[in-house]
Amino acid sequence: MYSIQALQDIIIQAIAGKKYPEEPAELYEPMQYMMNLGGKRLRPALLLMGCDAFGGDIYQAINPAIAIEVFHNFTLMHDDIMDNAPIRRGKTTVHEKWNSSVGILSGDAMLVEGYKLMMQVDEKVLRPVLEIFNHTAIAVCEGQQLDMNFEQLKEVRIESYINMIRLKTAVVLGGALKIGALIAGATKTEADLIYAFGEDLGIAFQLQDDILDVYGNPEKFGKQVGGDILSNKKTYLLIKALETADATQFQELNSWLQLTNFDAVKKVSAVKNLFDQMEIREKAEQEMNRYAQRALQSLKDLPLDEAQKSQLYEFADMLLVREN
Fold it and tell me: In the prediction, which pLDDT does 319 show?
């Protein structure tokens, strides 16, 4: 069995060795630039992990694994344009370095490149693998659109939010694991179980991210704490607070949501205080743990020995045991 770090290193080396055509430069240079920005490469490592767990040859899964990372970076390139984001992983975003038209077209080319790489699997599993990839790709687009829709809606239900993060984030984890498992020869039942593990783990991870955005240590979390509060982002915590609040709390919370000019420190402190009054952190942690337990149950149900499951358990711990 390969360690998670070993799988990440294999992916990093494979991506570093991949070169794109030189012309037209405006199409291919942004692709190379985006792929060279780095990242943890967890999604492609998951695909290799799914293959390794079922005793497959991970080197037969390298191209599909890179396909997952190319697809992920395609979504980031287009997300940056939609968000008008100037920085990605500490570097200038593609649309800022070139322009939005270049970013759109180069992103489109990355999606095609992802399909070219994904098709390099054995003919016996080509159709089911492409079906999973198609499902993952359209789900991520649906999730992104729902996330944008939420910005305009006054009311979002918890179940709608969970569905959005499932589509936008969790399906990629499940899809990567399932593709790797099928390449290794897993049965449909086995592949479905490892998919469920990845999807529920992804939902738990995003819920934890929501919690850490409010309650995390900024030095360890790696992002500005309270950023979601300042932007009125409809996370699990805010949606649950709006559902839970009594009349006085609801009025105070809404007053902060409607302010356009405010002191950032005061707003974060006031909203966080309201969350504390309503025990929103505890409610969010209960929901996160519910999905984490569902993920672990799917992993437990997999007909593999404990040694084969060990890296999957380790990955779950790595993803969910983050200091705050």
Answer: 87
Give me the numbers of helices (H) and strands (E) for the chain, helices first please.
17, 2
* CA distances (Å), origin 221, targets 59, 73, 203, 214: 33, 22, 18, 10
**Structural contact between residues 55 and 184, judged by C-beta atoms closer than 8 angstroms:** yes
- Cis peptide bond prior to 21, omega within 30° of 0: no
Residue 133's pLDDT is 98
Looking at the predicted structure, is the pLDDT value of residue 223 above 60? no
Name which CATH class applies to 1-185. Answer: mainly alpha
Distance CA 157, CA 190 (A): 33
Q: What is the pLDDT of residue 216?
A: 87
Burial class (CB in 10 A: 0-12, 13-18, 19+), 153: exposed
> Domain 187-324 is in which class?
mainly alpha
> From CA 291, how far away is CA 269, in angstroms rounded?
29
